[in-house]
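$ fold --in a.seq
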Amino acid sequence: MSNKSWLHYHEECLSLIRASSFDRALLLAKEGRAQHPSSIHLTCLAITACRAEGDFVSSLQYSQSLIASHPSNWQGYAKYSEDLNSLGRYDEALLILEQGIVATKENPHLCSAAIAICRLREDREAVTKYLSLLTSSPDLNEHDLYSASIGYLFLGNIDESRRLQKAGLLLNSSSQRLASLNNQIITHEQSLILSSVPFDQLSTAYLRAACGRALQMCDRIISIGPSCRNTHHIRRLTNNDGAYPFDWWITPYFSMVNIFKNWNEFCIKEQALMLTPSGKAVLNTDWSILHVHDFPKSKSGVIRLDRDSSSLKNIITELNSKYLFLFQRMFADIAEASSPLLVLGGYMAKSFVEVLPKPENYCSPPIDPSDDDFLIFLDYVRSNLNSRANMLVLSFGNLPALEKNDSGLIKLTVPDSENNLAIDNIHKPRSYLGYDLAFTMLASVL
């Protein structure tokens, strides 16, 4: 084994990672760690290579070893918590960060990571605690100031959020992230004003006008799920009334992608249909979607599936014919549009099969779709249908936010409704105000 310095291993390993040769990078990092077992940099590169290969178990082990060998260094705690986050183990991630904050004497990076988790959990008390620790540090960098500004925005403290955002720009005036944060602050300030108006007194005239601008810039706006609620608001705000397949179902994100790419194989089969516990929707176990509007209901809203009856067979035949036409229309409209926009009105990552009886050989999808998942899907649309297509992903929470990248992906966060109704505890209608704000914000970036 050659006697190379840790820096030599670091540079070679980094080059392999940049070339996407993750397996070779991991082997080289292991070799380097054998000679330099205390190297923080080589351990971090091994973690990066493991993550790229989807091996979070090994990544966690490297993070643990980093904490064990360098208990006062923040990077081990940060890496460990990031992997736990990726696995959906948020409580454990926050516990690790708490341990790291104590061990590293309130490291700002770890405080920022804790704020991000607590914001997702909508834990205002915890966000306040970690903000206090973060802002007490005498040397905050650009990243720390961004995290603090976002944290105060979450708490509704507009003035402090704006002050910290400006302080970050003084450190780095070219920071796009800090510059775009100004739009979020303005939008949040406006939403606080709007949310103080009683719902029955809220006029949407201005918002509809803004949506009209968005419609002019997107000549075809198409819902890709996850529910008919998304389609309802698109039609209400844009007067775009063309029907498409995902208008009628409740569709988890990964089910939508599967159907979108394999639509020519889509077929509703009687043996794949089962009633949900409430009897108000039909689960299609072949495609992991809920049919809410496709089958006749009684006055109480309950669906009855008459197995082996001619009427059910006729309904299924008509549905298959209908959806074949809708798929063909959707793909033709996307391909022919000058600037098509696909709208994902929130997403449900996991299949309904997760909470209902599972078919044989069922494989659970990932915990949450990531930005990479969205970009891979959008790249598929652009490569196969229309290179000018854009995709809007809506999230619903307390803090309005807007992100847009050069690949055509637009992410919006808008307030959710306080009055959530449920169908089998799965589908939650979204507020009119949330969609109004979403399309107003959309118009500002198109």
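$ fold --in b.seq
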Amino acid sequence: MKTTTLLVALICATVHSVGATPMSDGVPERWDRRFGKLGIHGIVSAIAEDDQGNLYIGGEFQLVNDGLGNLSVRHIVKWDGQRFRPVGGGVNGPVHAIAIDDYGTVYVGGAFSRAYQDDVNSTPANNIARWDGAFWHPLGQYDSRSNGVNRSVEDIHILDGTVYLAGQFTRANQPDGSSLTVNYVTGWNGHSWLALDSGMDAPVATLTSRDTILYAGGGFARAGSAHASAIARWDGSAWAPVAVDPGPGVAVNALVFGPDDHLYAGGSFMMIGGQFAFHIARWNGIQWAPLETGIESTMGIVHALSADSTYVYAGGTFFQHIGALTVNHIARWDGTRWSSMQTGVQGGQFGLDIGYVKTLAVVQDEVYAGGIFSIAGEVSAKGIARWDGDAWTPLGQGGNFGLNFMVDAVGIADHGVYVGGSFSTAGNQRIAHLARWDGSDWHEVGLGVTNSVYAITVHDERVYVGGTFLRAGGIQVNRIARWDGVAWHALGGGVNGRVKAIAADDHGNVYVGGEFTRATNPDQTTVNAA
């Protein structure tokens, strides 16, 4: 990531100082912040809306961009519809869950030990904290070390004024200094922690409710004294299974009630309640049933579910297709069939090529998806994107002229700045490996090249490009090619290995270096370059 950041910043400075419109004398040089990628630079794991329409977004990230430049944060940020805003100074570890009560109090859970009031001052908060709009507070504070719960929180759900937590924890620290055994699920009534019977025998991943009943999902086999595989219901006094137990081998990551009032369960399983169902199923109060063919993939795990008045939305790591549909990690179910949401989300971060959806939230008539990705539908959007029913958009406006992965080479010509690397998008456009910046927008170079670019040099307005690609503009070039501003040209038969450096002298000679042993002339004779 350090290399990528440095080189993208270099592009910005180059455009400002040698672009089509030079700066006037006396104007201080500065970096052009338009090149930051809109969205969240990291993993988004939780999204919640308050009654003012603000979104609280949590995960594992320390940098966000809304088109007006990068903002440093600690794992949580507020989106007010126009800008990202810090939430105090954030927390010192990943945020996995966010819930907001009727008074606007924001509850945040994850794997952290401190909540920062500002950039410097912090409050001890073990895996759970409360934000009142101005300050952070721990839950169950006795002293600087005794508060919260002893391990990570994975989900938060508020029901009838009680804040319920699910996660990896086994004990909760009471305000009187005592420790309560809770085993993966607990409730906070505003004054003390509550034990829900004896809890579960394994971690709980998700919570939801219907009327006064709390539902829990995870990888457990028992809930309190009841045998309950993966899903259990709490009526305020005891745990019970659903009428048809999901059975062994089921791990539930997400639960939601759909517009049909059926309970939908998503996770990692092939069968549930004796029915074949790939990673997602619904409970109608009598039996379990699959959703068509389900998410048919060996890695088709469902991580998130949400619902509005028409659809159930599913997000996860399922790849490319549901039946004949192209979906890419997110799809919607209308009660009868699946439909795609453009081409879903794609592209990872931190060198990961594979993205996924970690969390979903329906806010008014829009769906927000968070996770690890760099493309949503046809636009560039890092970590989080908004679906309006027809198309995806990033959070923020303007800017977004950056590149979504490694930049390895820059060359400057009168007709633009040429940038090469291993990226797949430039700004909001799908342009891979090589792009030209004209001072205000990105352009594909001819029909582009077929693989990574590692070297660019410009001589007499001829752009020489080298890398690992075999074709440029549809012609065979073998790792090195020349662009004349209109068309691509091969340099003989190219070379037999990666090109990493190119230089040209005043006499028109071009020098090429890299990981090759042979160069081929136009007449197909070869030169030993070992």
